[in-house]
Amino acid sequence: MENNYDGEKTEPIDYREIKISTFDLEAIKSFRIESSINNHSTLELVGILPEDRKDHDISTSYNTPIEVYCENDQGHKTIYIGIITEIKVKNCAEYYELHIKAKSYTYLMDIKKKSRSFQNTDMKIINLISAITRPYYKAVFNYYIDNAPTNRLWVQYNETDWEFIKRVASYYNAGLFPNNTLEGVHYFVDTPELESKNLEINEYVASKSFEDYEDMKENDTPDLSEIDYITYRVKSYELLELGDNITFKEQVFYVSKLIYEIIENNSILENTYILQPKGGQKQKRLYGDNLSGISLKGSVLEVTGDKIKVKLDIDKDQDASEAYWFTYSTLSASTDGSGWYFMPEVNDRVRIYFPTNDEDDAFAISCIQQIKGDPAVKYISTIYGNKVVFGSDSVTITADNNATIVLGKNGGISINGGSISLNASEAINIRAEDSVVISGKSNVEISCDKGGKTILDGGGNIELKGTKVRIN
């Protein structure tokens, strides 16, 4: 069997050399550790409890840490560190079994669903991931993607931090590689470039997935080749970690999945690794499926042209200088700029609509106003008090309640205001089939720019002025 291994022969780890922290077990019957890209490393363990511990260990508190390690004449070697997620004590007549399930510390990022936006398109992608990761216990991440500006809107909606970062990384066809041998939240973004390891391979199975290759090539990363989808499932006594690389068959392969396992009645630790070329570890892009079809409410921060900046209600605060410019959908707008053009004002309430699961498609629309009254009455209003009211029997145009025009359904027109001026470049004709009434409380004055004037004063007098006055 071709192996490329030239190191010393590795001795298997005996089950009696494996210990766990937190619990004092008489023996370990079985355990399984599994780790893969984008998933938390998991531990499932069954051990035999001493008689005096059967009731004590069930009281273990939530998120209790656990370490699985090997202890022999070569020293102490950590195999797994995580937090307990499930514990069970089973009475087996002559002895008690302790059943434990645990996950890597990255699980802490995958508990609480959150909603928030990251609108600063100049923010570096690593600063975005850091802002999300930093609050967690002993959090450290290393990245192997370009630290470029995001150049886009990111919205975390009803997603855990782990789900969201996984989606962000997938935008660059990168995956998350959780670490399961260090205390705290530790992970890599994209395939790590670590020192190459030696691996003594006991047996292997080779395969190639044409379906995965064609899917990724056509939809995500066209620069892939078929060689990237050659996969080896190998067994070895060596302990590798997720993302480690080895040289096998004169090619560099990376660990994309690992399983450490002791099966009941088997006395040694068996390690299985899935090896792939680096290109084969590229991930399909994930989308924000929770976003599709939703509207997020917010308040307008700035307006320019047909775009607005918005502080979303899901965010605690939003610096206007870093806010994203959303296109605002105006009424009956057309490509040539004609049609209706109603832009909101600063502090107006709006909604950001997501027609698909991709933030790039989001745009702003008007907000639903909670106006009580007759649903048959329609309004167009501004923050300055100007309003057009479409009633069932009239249309009313109001300027801050100081001037009003009412167009009645019966054909009547009423104009009210502080002062009313009628000006025309040519002529104004006033005609009625019945009568025309002109009245004034103090006087009525009709004049011509060339000097002719008629004045009706409040005393009942009529004064006629002009170069010539003719009375017939």
UniProtKB/TrEMBL annotation:
Protein's recorded name: Phage late control gene D protein
Record-linked SUPFAM superfamilies: gp5 N-terminal domain-like (SSF69255), Phage tail proteins (SSF69279)
Domain Gp5/Type VI secretion system Vgr protein OB-fold: 306-366
Gene3D superfamilies, alphabetized: 2.30.110.50, Baseplate protein-like domains (3.55.50.10)
Taxonomic source organism: Clostridium saccharobutylicum DSM 13864
